[in-house]
Amino acid sequence: MDMARTKSPRDELDRFRRTESTTGWPLRVQGASVYAELEKPHALVCTEVWGGNRRVTRTIKLPSLAAWVASVPIQEGEGGGDLHYMSVCDFDLVSRVALADVSGHGRDVNAVTQTLRSLMRKNINAWNQSDFMRGLNDTFRQGGNDQYATAIVLSFHRLTGRLAFSNAGHPPPLWYHAAQGIWDWLNEGIEAKKASGFPVGLIPGTDYSQTVVTLKPSDILVLYTDGITEAQNEAGQELGRQQLLEWARQAPVESPRAVGEDLLRRLQLFRGRVRNDDETLLVLRRKKESLLLRLGEVASSSTIGLLLRSLSPGRSNLQD
Q1: Which regions of the chain does DSSP assign to beta strands (E)?
Q2: CATH number at 34-311
Q3: Residue 310 pLDDT > 60, yes or no?
Q4: In angstroms, rounded to a whole number, what is the distance separating the alpha carbons of residues 12 and 30?
Q5: Predicted structure pTM score
């Protein structure tokens, strides 16, 4: 008779917590609700800006979008160089998502987080990316500390499904086309590529263009920092973007969380305990919604938006 003690869910939880402490990434345990998404899903409301550079694993709800973000700084106590922010405009029409990888860590980055938050709020009603990117570039130049950052910034219009994005030297997002069931890259147009190679803060007056695509229902975008694709295994082999794409093609696509967890599980198996940089993964999925439902929600939110604007007359108008 096997007298070995049967492991309880608490035993498994303790084991995986020990694993988490050595690998950095939280893990899912079968039989116990332990995935380190400790906070409940958060639904952004009109005029809200959410994000930062601290460790987080959380589901975020945006107008017509579902998001899942997991970020683990290399120096958790002081915050990392990976910054993520999301916002919703006054009228519940436009959502913005920004992911940046700033040179430096800790206190060197804390001031940048406040700057990015302020820019998100200042441009909260603008679907066009131009002023936002120009302000981000100028802010780094004026800081005088030789900091720079790669960044990807997206604005989504829920009624049209149009997605405007600008890329400042950041790794290109993955794009799942639900109707065709295929994965590829979210690439820029020819004109936008002329400036896309320059991180913000390097060249004063850089004019970052934007590319506009249509994000269709159930389409998925995967944003990430180079801490993911430049991760190395114990043999010194680098993961690379192509391998991340291959992993995405094998991942479940029923939710942003399902995609994100699968990719991070594979990353953990690849690199083991080797970890040299901040790592952030941000997954977006357009919801399936009828036009009538979207119009109804926008009409309801517009009433709230008008009230908020009456209390803040200096706010900018919604731009297309």
Answers
A1: 42-43, 49-52, 56-62, 65-72, 82-88, 94-102, 149-157, 162-168, 174-177, 182-185, 211-214, 220-224, 279-286
A2: 3.60.40.10
A3: no
A4: 8
A5: 0.81
